[in-house]
């Protein structure tokens, strides 16, 4: 997702941890900031809600080791992902 001068990506770790990692990169492809949220992996989609100023990543949530637990939204208010 592009927002202002930054590009945001959702990642899972190489170790396949249950962790959503959102990373903001500048125009030189340098990491500027990162956010890590435990309990989620495998981003399926991203939804930008301009009216409510929210960004939602649709992520797989593992709740007890069952891979069929499903996909759930992980939302951020714009201020949470704003680079200051």
Tell me what the structure shows.
This protein is mainly beta and 84 residues long. The protein is built from one helix and seven strands, in the order βββββββα. It has a four-stranded antiparallel sheet with strand order 1-2-3-4, with no helix packed on it. A hairpin with a 2-residue loop joins strand 1 and strand 2 (6-11). It starts with a strand and ends with a helix.
What strand line-up does the widest sheet have?
A: 1-2-3-4
The helix-strand sequence is EEEEEEEH
Outline type: globular
Gyration radius from CA atoms, angstroms: 13 Å
Q: What's a concise summary of this model?
A:
By secondary structure, the protein is mainly beta. The chain contains one helix and seven strands.
SSE blueprint and pairings:
Elements: E1 2-3, E2 6-11, E3 19-25, E4 31-38, E5 40-49, E6 54-61, E7 71-77, H1 78-81
Antiparallel strand pairs: 1-2, 2-3, 3-4, 5-6, 6-7
Structure keywords:
84 residues; mainly beta
